[in-house]
Write a structure and sequence with these properties.
CATH topology of chain A: Rossmann fold
Largest interface: A-B, 39 and 42 residues
Helix content of chain A: 10-25%
CATH class of chain A: Alpha Beta
Oligomer: heterodimer
Shape of chain A: globular
Strand content of chain A: 25-35%
Number of helices of chain B: 13
Number of helices of chain A: 5
Strand order of the largest sheet of chain B: 8-7-6-5-4-3-2-9
Structural class of chain B: alpha/beta
Number of strands of chain A: 12
């Protein structure tokens, strides 16, 4: 897994935190702001931030089509928080445009506003126990097709996988452990 | 066990705002426009700083009904301002459920000596700073995010540039000191010693640092980003310009593509009139907002 070229979408949000975590895993990282950078990647991370801000820039600068076609061809993509929303085929009670890659319906700000943001211990299938940081986090309301549920917290779905695609409601880039990064790199 | 209002959660939201633009808005319509333009958060106000400046008198926390209407209109985080030291305004804003409180020099200070003890709150705070000592005092009181003060409501970026350069210069100076000189440096700039040690370890401020005060054009935003800010607050600069939607979209793109002059040239075209600016020297010393805060 060392030396894999991992791009971090750097339009807005916590992209530097992801970059530093993947560097610690030994991956070759790059910050992605232009469509032509996508084709040279082994994997892509869509970070936390504001999904509307990132979505607007993604469309305006033509990155959306490049990501969709490369992901459909098998490139692993991991979305955290806002990234999960952008991967979803459906956003509950919203007409916001997304990449529509994963068979999931996501509810935004589903745990409440910032005063309800929280940290908690999670148990993830195939990975084990980890600490989850949830910030104005979404959760998955429904999955279909080939999507598998990897983690639930208080009966809400907070981590899912669909072949080359991975999505988390929480922020592994804000905690010390690299288990989820390593799990994702195995796909690349 | 679920833990709310922790340091990680408070500073975490600021980390999610990075690389983005936080826009001042005074109505639900403006808030929706900001969201559509790609703002990463909005600041809910009754009046933008330029209007506060021209109205004079005592500027206070916004009417809760204004803040609530804005919170209902958008899905992005909503911030609101309380007066320096006015911990009850802060309690009210927390009760309303705002996502961030700006303890702001734009409003008339309620306390001439003390700021709010921000550790007491679950909601995170952002505070202004002109230099490293001021930034670390605010972080010591519990601020989870810092911004330059600039000179609000002027459309003149010169003070924001001065403040980020000052903070950067002091960080370089602190990092160059031998261990035994650090305590005296802490005394000199009136900063908590432990936080100064943290700055040396990280080689930067321990929390996210945005630019604020006087940003009016996409190039202003890119300038502040190239000087090392993590993101941008735009106050009067958008809704006091002739074409707010175009200008807002352009400043958002400039904050992402701050290092790409080709893109900056493209997005700076045909934006209409920027807000009319104010020369800093024409503002009387006692009317300068940046000198509020201690």
């Amino acid at each position: 897994m060392a030396g894999k070229r991992v791009g971090i979408l750097a339009l807005q949000g916590a992209f530097l935190e992801h970059e530093s975590a993947f560097k610690r895993c030994g991956a070759q990282t790059s910050l992605v702001r232009r469509a032509e950078q996508i084709k040279t990647l082994d994997a892509l991370v869509i970070p936390g931030g504001e999904s509307t801000a990132m979505g607007t820039l993604m469309t305006r600068f033509g990155l959306d089509q490049a990501i969709i076609s490369k992901a459909r061809a098998g490139m692993p993509v991991w979305g955290t928080c806002a990234g999960m929303i952008l991967l979803a085929r459906e956003v509950v009670a919203s007409k916001q445009p997304t990449l529509g890659l994963m068979d999931i319906a996501v509810r935004r700000n589903a745990f409440g506003r910032q005063v309800d943001s929280f940290e908690a211990e999670l148990v993830i299938e195939g990975i084990g126990i980890t600490r989850g940081v949830f910030i104005r986090a979404p959760y998955v309301e429904r999955v279909w097709g080939e999507t598998k549920i990897l983690c639930e917290y208080q009966e809400k779905i907070v981590m899912v996988e669909e072949n080359n695609l991975l999505a988390t409601s929480f922020h592994p880039e804000l905690t010390e452990t690299l288990d989820i990064q390593k799990y994702f790199l195995q796909k690349a | 066990m679920t833990e709310k209002g922790t340091y990680v959660v408070k500073t975490g939201l600021a980390q999610m705002l990075k690389g983005g633009v936080i826009m001042d808005v005074t109505s639900a319509e403006q808030a929706k426009m900001a969201e559509e333009a790609g703002a990463c958060a909005v600041m809910a106000l009754e009046r933008v700083p330029a209007d506060i400046r021209s109205a004079g008198g005592v500027a206070r926390m916004a009417d809760p009904s204004v803040v609530i209407k804005i919170m209902e209109a958008v899905t992005i985080p909503v911030m609101a301002k309380c007066r320096i030291g006015h911990f009850v305004e802060a309690q009210v804003l927390e009760a309303l459920g705002v996502d961030y409180i700006d303890e702001s020099e734009v409003l008339t200070p309620a306390d001439e000596k003390f700021h709010v003890h921000k550790h007491d709150f679950k909601v995170p705070f952002v505070c202004g700073a002109k230099n490293l000592g001021e930034a670390l005092r605010r972080i010591g009181e519990g601020a989870a995010m810092i911004r330059t003060k600039g000179e609000p409501g002027t459309g003149n970026v010169v003070e924001a540039v001065k403040h980020i350069r000052q903070v950067n210069a002091e960080i370089r100076w602190i990092c160059s000191l031998p261990q035994e000189e650090l305590m005296a440096a802490a005394k000199e700039i009136q900063a908590p010693y432990e936080l100064l040690q943290e700055v040396v370890r990280l080689q930067k401020l321990p929390v996210v640092n945005f630019a604020a005060g006087g940003i009016a054009t996409p190039s202003d935003a890119a300038l502040m980003m190239q000087l090392g800010c993590d993101g941008i607050f735009v106050g009067s600069g958008i809704f006091k310009s002739s074409d707010p939607m175009r200008r807002a979209r352009s400043i958002v793109a400039a904050t992402t593509y701050y290092n790409d002059p080709q893109v900056l040239a493209e997005i700076s075209k045909n934006l209409g009139e920027a807000m009319s600016g104010l020369e800093i020297r024409t503002i009387k010393e006692e009317e300068r907002m940046q000198d509020r805060g201690w």
